[in-house]
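I hope you will forgive my troubling you with a question about protein structure. I should value your view on which stretches of the chain appear to form regular backbone elements. Here, with my thanks, is the record as I have it:
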Amino acid sequence: MIVWLNGTHGAGKTTTSKLVQQLLPDSRVFDAEKVGETLMDIEPGLPQTDNFQHWPPWRPLVVETARRVLDYTGGTLVMPMTVLVEQYWREIGTGLAQHAIPIHHFVLHADQQTLRARIEGDTVMGPSRFRLNHLEPYAEASRTWLHKEAEVIDTTHLTPAEAAEQIAEAVQR
């Protein structure tokens, strides 16, 4: 199965995914961003875009990579990855369903003020215009489709460990 941790930058996906992995037996973390990084390394480069998710190969490659890893290892993949375009989420979900791979979809949510403060105060990645620019698209996706498609975990006042415990408990029900 896949435990997908969605949400915008600053919600705690990466940190929480590592903690969820520790709570779920036989699980691994697979960051689909690495698929995007591979596509960005192609020389000469693919057509210019502001987000590798817009490249049509990204979505099926994420599905195929997850499928192949699960075929090889079994268990659970914990996938921290922001997907804010509903069509892209549908493509990934449909692709995984075609391989009978169940998805437990969670959105790590925090209010805009908290997200902005986390991004601006990030001591690892530093403040990032790219990450800040995703706050409004996240808010729009949340209003229109995203929160209806997933179990929402409000991380505004939770530690990553508390969020991970909620997710692990929900998956194991």
Summary: The mean pLDDT is 96.
